[in-house]
Specification:
Blueprint lengths: L11 H86 L5 H9 L7 E15 L1 H6 L3 H21 L3 E6 L2 E6 L8 H25 L6 E17 L4 E6 L1 H11 L6 E3 L1 H7 L3 E9 L8 E9 L5 E2 L8 E15 L2 E2 L4 E8 L3 E6 L8 E6 L11 E8 L9 E6 L2
Parallel strand pairs: 4-6
Antiparallel strand pairs: 1-3, 1-4, 2-3, 4-5, 6-8, 7-8, 8-9, 10-11, 10-12, 10-14, 12-13, 13-16, 14-15, 15-16
Helix pairs in contact: 1-2, 4-5
């Protein structure tokens, strides 16, 4: 019997097993393919949703950017408008105050420029009014350009002093000045600085007289009145034309007080005196009855100040000398700035550079302003006129008119 042959390949059973394994593998791959296709479809749907969401967000961002740009443009325009308004206000402040108050005051107003619209507010201030005596006579000796040169020299000196004492110049009327202490900014020492300023102004007047002396021209003097009271201060005018101004009875009273002064004199009201008496030197006081004031008023003639400012006026050295022969004059009493219609006779019997003793035929009240004409021995009127203020009277029972002491003023 022949021997059995060895097997050279897998058995049928083995092949069947392998085929079954391959079928299972194919089925698994088919399932995996299906799962991948499902996942791809889901991913595609998610990608579409994400793309749509991103597009919406992009659209929203573009809308927001457009709105932000519009807002930024509007904000920029608003800021530009505010900057222009601020620049106009700053220019307004500098134009209104720059030449009349110190740089310190201007800087504070620019930092806090409230209250600069048309209108005003009531506040307590100290008011200073000054007027040059002798200016009319001096102006008649000068050419127009020389008059302006003198005025500018005088005002340059006075403005420098006023700004140094932090005063606010409200008006420059020819040779007269109206100055406030306490507006637009108030300080505790407004009244004291006002009086100190007046003293410094009187001491400075000699600087303006020096060039006149060199030119052979007469000196001029200045009278100053000061009063403390309530006024309304603010911007007066229209949108086209505005000024910083002051109104109130206190302004009028200051003018009355100034009208009682003679050259080189500073007169202050009782309210100013009450705030400054502790540091003042007063040469004398007088009782007057200003027009529009119900009761008599005591005025104080200031000659110096102690303390922080430490200022003192020189003592006047006027000595009346008897004339060997009286000078005949004709005079009239001024009513305000106008000469009265009645002319009266008088005689100058004593004379000093700025003071005279005048005997009058008709009674003249103290503090009256006179316009005088000198007469030659022949009775002829000497060309020109003199102006004087009665500073003291000595009537007696036998002669009610009697002598008066006058000081030259203009």
């Amino acid at each position: 019997m022949p021997a059995a042959q060895p097997s050279h390949g897998p058995s049928r059973q083995a092949l069947l097993v392998e085929v079954q394994a391959l079928r299972q593998r194919v089925a698994a791959l088919e399932q995996e393919k299906h799962d991948l296709e499902v996942m791809l479809e889901m991913a595609t749907d998610h990608a579409d949703d994400l793309s749509e969401s991103l597009q919406q967000e992009r659209d929203d961002l573009e809308t927001m950017l457009e709105m932000t740009t519009d807002h930024a443009d509007a904000l920029e325009a608003d800021l530009q408008s505010q900057a222009e308004a601020l620049a106009r206000r700053s220019q307004f402040i500098r134009e209104t105050f720059g030449r009349y108050v110190s740089e310190e005051v201007v800087a504070q107003l620019l930092d806090a420029p409230e209250g600069l619209e048309l209108g005003g507010s009531k506040r307590k201030v100290t008011i200073l009014m000054s007027d040059v005596r002798g200016f009319t006579a001096l102006a008649e000796c000068l050419e127009p350009q020389e008059v302006m040169t003198f005025l500018n020299r005088y005002l340059e000196a006075m403005v420098e002093v006023i700004l140094a004492y932090r005063g606010t110049i409200i008006e420059i009327l020819g040779d007269g000045l109206l100055v406030l202490f306490g507006a637009p900014l108030s300080r505790d020492d407004d009244a004291e600085r006002a009086v100190a300023c007046a003293l410094a102004m009187q001491l400075r007047i000699d600087d303006t007289n020096a060039p006149n002396r060199r030119a052979g021209l007469p000196d001029v003097d200045m009278g100053i009145g000061i009063h403390t009271g309530e006024v309304v201060v603010g911007h007066i005018g229209s949108q086209q034309r505005t000024k910083y101004g002051v109104v109130g009875s206190a302004v009028n009273l200051t003018g009355r007080i100034e009208s009682y002064t003679t050259g080189g004199q500073i007169l202050i009201s009782p309210t100013t005196y009450a705030e400054t008496a502790a540091v003042l030197t007063v040469s004398h006081h007088m009782t007057v009855a200003p027009k529009g004031v119900a009761t008599p008023l005591t005025l104080y003639a200031v000659s110096g100040m102690r303390g922080a400012h430490s200022l003192s006026l020189p003592t006047p050295m006027e000595t009346l000398v008897s004339l060997p022969q009286a000078l005949d004059v004709r005079y009239t009493v001024l009513e305000g700035k106008f000469a009265g219609s009645t002319m009266s006779a008088g005689r100058v019997v004593k004379l000093a550079p700025k003071t005279a003793e005048l005997h009058v035929d008709q009674p003249v009240a103290a503090f009256s302003n006179l316009k005088l004409h000198l007469l030659r021995p022949t009775g002829e009127v000497v060309p020109g006129e003199l102006f004087a203020k009665v500073v003291e009277t000595w009537p007696d029972e036998a002669d009610p008119s009697g002598p008066v002491e006058v000081q030259s003023v203009v």
